Write a sequence for this structure.
C-alpha cells in the first residue's frame, strides 16, 4: 500500500535529504583543508635543509679561516671570498625563514592554532591571523633576501669607471629608501 504524504511532509523530507547531502559535501569540503599539511611539512623540511646547508657553508668559512691563519698562507681575495660565502649563508638562512613563516602561517590559518606557541613569549613573529598578515611577513623577509642577494652581487662585480660606481650608489640609495618606507609602514600600523 502506497503512503500518501502531504506537501509539508514532502518539503520536510526533501529538506532532511538535502541537509544530509549538504552535510556530507560540506564535511568533505572542509576536510580537504588537511592537504595544506603537505605544504606545511615540506616547507619545514625545506627550511631545515637550508639551515643545514647554510650552517655547513659557515663551518666551511670557519675551517678556511683556521687553515689560513694556522698555515700562514693568505690566498688572493681572501677577505672578499669570506664575505661572499658568509653573505651566501645569510641568504640561505633568510630563505629558510621564509619557508618556516610560510609553513607556520598555513598551519595556523587552515588547520589550528599552535597551542605551545601561544604560551611562548617568543612566538610573536610566527603569529599569523590572516592571509594578508602572512603575505606581509613573507614579503618583508623576501625583500631582505633580495637585498642580501643584491649585496652579494655588488661585492662580486668589477666596476670599470665612475658611471658604474654612481649607478651602484644610486641602487644602494633606492634600496635604503625602499627599506625606509617599508619600516615607516610598520610604524603606522602600530
Amino acid at each position: 500500500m502506497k503512503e500518501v504524504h502531504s506537501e509539508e511532509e514532502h518539503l520536510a523530507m526533501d529538506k532532511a535529504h538535502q541537509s544530509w547531502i549538504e552535510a556530507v559535501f560540506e564535511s568533505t569540503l572542509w576536510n580537504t583543508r588537511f592537504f595544506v599539511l603537505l605544504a606545511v611539512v615540506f616547507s619545514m623540511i625545506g627550511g631545515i635543509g637550508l639551515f643545514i646547508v647554510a650552517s655547513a657553508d659557515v663551518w666551511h668559512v670557519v675551517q678556511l679561516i683556521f687553515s689560513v691563519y694556522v698555515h700562514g698562507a693568505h690566498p688572493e681575495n681572501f677577505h672578499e671570498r669570506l664575505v661572499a660565502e658568509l653573505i651566501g649563508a645569510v641568504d640561505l638562512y633568510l630563505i629558510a625563514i621564509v619557508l618556516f613563516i610560510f609553513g607556520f602561517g598555513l598551519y595556523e590559518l587552515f588547520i589550528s592554532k599552535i597551542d605551545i606557541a601561544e604560551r611562548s613569549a617568543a612566538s610573536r613573529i610566527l603569529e599569523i591571523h590572516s592571509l594578508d598578515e602572512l603575505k606581509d611577513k613573507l614579503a618583508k623577509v623576501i625583500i631582505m633576501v633580495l637585498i642580501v642577494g643584491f649585496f652579494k652581487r655588488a661585492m662580486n662585480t668589477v666596476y670599470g669607471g665612475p658611471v658604474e660606481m654612481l649607478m651602484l650608489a644610486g641602487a644602494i640609495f633606492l634600496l635604503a629608501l625602499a627599506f625606509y618606507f617599508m619600516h615607516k609602514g610598520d610604524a603606522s600600523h602600530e
Notes: Residues 20-157 form one domain.
